[in-house]
Design a protein that fits this description.
Number of helices: 12
Distance between the termini: 6 Å
Largest sheet: 8 strands, parallel, barrel
Helix content: 40-55%
Shape: globular
CATH topology: TIM Barrel
Bound molecules: phosphoenolpyruvate
Strand order of the largest sheet: 1-2-3-4-5-6-7-8
CATH superfamily: Aldolase class I
């Protein structure tokens, strides 16, 4: 059985003070929900305040990126040991905004995944096609290349610690959600690919989140698909009411 995981990607939003305020509201709404994993991913500079505010709430803490070296002359970067030391548990890797605006490639995704695992952090690895790629019927080719490149040389045991987020780029922040059928088709494809790359047991146990304009209104239908095991949520994670509603609407769905 796979436990649904709903993660909020706060992107470049919220000061440390605002982070604490939002977490306090989320704790009020979510502290008695344990059947779904919920995670918040604030900015690096708000992580320490977030950790203090989350204190035994059962809500997980994630970062939005990680550098692959532990330390050294890499101005502006943050490493795995630093995140671990702060009490971070998850890290988003290869988000499409990092791929589009910051030169992230499958190769750097692969290095970051290995660094996260080395520091005992759980990677949330994002894959997804652009609109032109979908329109050119290249969705599966793109997803396959991203999975094969990003997950290169990992053992099945390492894969067992990874969460995949399928995020069609055309659905991120646009209000356009993939239909449940469109998302399910790609999730199934990813699971079959993981079975080929690793083994059936790992593929069956891997949690694959959907991301792209998830809101409380479309949560049940998306989470109801057999291979959708959670959501990576951008815009709707910035308000306690909408994020809590997504988590609540994911309860009671068996995987
Ligand atoms: C995201 O950035 O991961 C995302 C899915 O954003 P949104 O929910 O705003 O589309």
């Amino acid at each position: 059985m796979r436990k649904i995981i709903i993660a909020g990607n706060w992107k470049l939003n919220k000061t440390a003070k605002e982070t604490t305020e939002l977490i306090n509201l989320l704790k009020r709404d979510l502290s008695d929900i344990s059947e779904v994993d919920s995670v918040v991913c604030p900015t690096f500079i708000a992580l320490a305040d977030a950790r203090d505010a989350l204190d035994e709430s059962g809500i997980g803490l994630g970062a939005q990126n990680i550098y692959w070296e532990d330390s050294g002359a890499f101005t502006g970067e943050i490493s795995g040991p630093m995140l671990k030391d702060l009490g971070v548990q998850y890290v988003i890797i290869g988000h499409s905004e990092r791929r589009q605006f910051f030169g992230e490639t499958d190769e750097t995704v692969n290095k970051r995944i290995k660094a996260a695992l080395k520091s005992d952090l759980l990677p949330i690895v994002c894959v997804g096609e652009m609109l032109e790629e979908r329109e050119a019927d290249k969705t599966f080719d793109v997803i396959k290349a991203q999975c094969q490149g990003g997950l290169k040389d990992l053992t099945a045991e390492e894969m067992g610690k990874i969460i995949i987020a399928y995020e069609p780029v055309w659905a991120i922040g646009t209000g356009k959600t993939a239909t449940p059928d469109q998302a399910q088709e790609v999730h199934r494809f990813i699971r079959d690919l993981l079975a080929e790359m690793f083994n059936g047991e790992i593929a069956g146990a891997t949690r694959i989140q959907y991301g792209g304009s998830v809101k409380s209104e479309n949560t049940k239908e998306l989470m109801g698909q057999p291979d959708i095991d959670g959501a990576l949520v951008g815009g709707a994670s910035l308000k306690a009411d909408s994020f809590a509603a997504i988590v609540k609407n994911s309860c009671g769905i068996e995987k």
